[in-house]
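Protein Record: Sequence and Backbone Structure Tokens
======================================================
Tokens: labelled as protein backbone structure tokens, with as many entries as the chain has residues.
Question of interest: how does this chain fold, as expressed in backbone structure tokens?

___
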Amino acid sequence: MSENVVEAKTDVVLVGAGIMSATLGALMRQLQPDWSITAFERLDAVAAESSDPWNNAGTGHSALCELNYTPGNPDGSVEIAKAVNVNEQFQVSRQFWSYAVDNGLLSDPKDFINPIPHVSFVHGADDVKYLRARYDALAGHPLFAGMEYSESPEFFAERLPLMAAGRDFSDPVALNWTDTGTDVDFGALTKQLINNVAESGGTVFFGHEVTNISKQSDGSWIVKVRNRRTGESRKVHAKFVFVGAGGGALHLLQKSGIAEAKGFGGFPVSGAFLRCTNPDVIARHSAKVYGKAAVGAPPMSVPHLDTRVIGGKQGLLFGPYAGWSPKFLKQGGVMDLPKSIKPNNLMSMLGVGVTELGLVKYLVGELTQSPADRIGTLAEFAPEARLEDWELIVAGQRVQVIRRKGAGGVLEFGTAVVSAADGSIAGLLGASPGASTAVPAMLDVLERCFPQQWDAWQPKLREMVPSLGVKLSENPDLFRQVWDHSTKTLQLDVVPGRGQVAPMEAAAV
């Protein structure tokens, strides 16, 4: 007896219901409301993998405090180009979210974004010298104005009481403090955006896994989908496919057969955080504080003591502690990594295996840590931390991009948009800064894949993102306009306990 297959047609298929697909779907509904959109999510909920608020740092990556974006040079100067670029990208996301609130795509901004100070923290004479150089390089920049620098124990104790308690200040400390940072609940944001796609005519299927993507002679795609609950198969004919499946994206892009996906591999890294369970401890800290990664550790391992606002409640995380699993998704399978190895990416994978021995050593060290070891790492931030106040939670899986380079490959700690030459399919690979740059990443997809519509879309695009195509770092007046508007619309003008934010006032203590 032949299997019954449901057949359907749609203009756009979105694979995955995370922040990337949700953002692209919401943008498309604004730009081309007559297009039909169908989304398939293998799990039973929106944002259940990497976009879940407990599965990512949720920093609102704007490079205000993350030291891996501002490496030091041998001459003592600090490189800021990457930090400026990441901040520019986050400003684009802020503008779209502001438009979305103004126009009813998103509801109460407090449900997904809240003001929280971002802080860089170091100790030891050499790192203090580095942080001062970082402040000197950034403080005069329009996108980083308002940053404070201090080596004062009194300043430290006033701003970070949890971290000051029990600290030996004979070891010099320094802080870069910025009041204009945010905490973003990407789970809540994704849910609202997916709801907008559905309410404006899109169709969203949960518990449906895309099993194959195949190109047709007319340039369209057949997307094969399986209902994970009933086993029913579905065959969808789509003009455009976006693979926003997180760690699952590599497999599907490989199955599509597009030349642009050849040579790419993936290196899975799992993460874990200590989550505070003591309300009194949580109440003593209100900031996102980032330190320096240990020598030999990858950029994604930058330790941070991170205030989160999830469901209107304040929480506190510390980490990440790296782990390793062959799964490409938190709810994936142990064969994910072996199945991703193909003849066209084998040399890329082997090349990384040889060049990243330091990463392997780091991961082995992380995997052998005991609970006491983890608290010992936390004690660098909070000297009086007690094991009974914290629980270990497993965060999402990250699949770092392995890209072909020469005869081998190189491991990249970032995101990569992969699109076919004809623009009929695109996908996103990689991790950090990830969710925070969802809007510019999806605008990149639209520009690459819809060149014929791009010019006609310009008026609407500039309504959604007034700075589109402009570097705000080179246009401080425009930056001030879009900043002030998005700050007001997103209700980010007051930091709890610290009053009005004045982003253009800088100080060194």
About this structure: DSSP finds 15 helices and 22 strands in the chain.
